[in-house]
Every structure is written in C-alpha cells, then in structure tokens.
Amino acid sequence: MLHGPPSTQRKARALRRQLTLPEVLLWQQLRLGPAGLRFRRQHPAGRYILDFYCATRLLAVEVDGMSHDREAQWQHDVERDAWLAGHGILVLRMPAQDVLADCADVVARVVATALGRADVRGR
Question: What is the pLDDT of residues 28-67, one digit of tens each?
Fold first, then answer.
C-alpha cells in the first residue's frame, strides 16, 4: 500500500474535513462501494494526496476544478501523474463540472475504468 510521510498524512486528514462540493457528491457515491470497489478519500501517496484511491485497482480519481487550468497547476499535475504512474497507479481526471452536471455518469466512468484494471490482490 502506498502511503505518505507523517506531514502528508496530517494534511490529508485535514483535507477530509474540507471537501469541495463536487468531491462531496462523488464521495457520497464512491463510499457505497459500487461494483464491490473500495475507495478512500484524500489518501496520502508519497508527497501527494489523492482525492480518491482504489488500492485494489491502483486507480486514483482526481476531481479537477478551474485551478487545474492554470499552467503552474497543470505542470504540477503532469509531474504528479508521472510519479504515480511510476508506482503503477493510473490517474483518472474528472472535471468538477462533470461531477456537478451528472455525478452518476462520472461514477459509471470511474467504475468502468477500475473494473478494466487488474485486481492487484490477485498478484
């Protein structure tokens, strides 16, 4: 299991109490364990914090708001995604607007992506 240093774990704990509306809406669905999948919210991974993480499928789900359109944030996301890919984790980025417009569709896309990946418990 991928974890982070104590400082990242503390920050993740704080962020769990400060979810954005799109994150809250998506979490309300993911916490139900769609298709038997288990997700964690604000999961520390190295020096990064993943919005949602399915450890058995090595899938990170990121809800991207408008701040991700800025070049500095975009560059950070590219570095972060590369680091996660180096650990076998696929990052699925979902625009916050999509979550707000049709959360059920976003959940369906997340589930389909997760089920399309091998279950690492079988390794």
Answer: 999 999 999 999 999 999 889 999 999 999 999 999 986 5
Asked if the model's pLDDT at residue 12 lies above 60, the reply is no
Q: Evaluate if pTM is beyond 0.70.
A: yes
Per-residue tokens: 5: 């240093």
At 64, which amino acid appears?
A: D
Residues 105, 23: Cα–Cα separation, whole Å = 15
Q: How far is CA 8 from the centre of its chain?
A: 15
Q: Across the chain, where does the E strand assignment appear?
A: 40-45, 48-54, 59-64, 90-95
Cα 3 vs. chain centroid, distance in angstroms?
Answer: 14
What would the two tokens of residue 55 be? 């450890």
Strand extents, DSSP E, 40-123: 40-45, 48-54, 59-64, 90-95
Residue 95 three-state SS: strand
Place of tokens 């919005």: 51
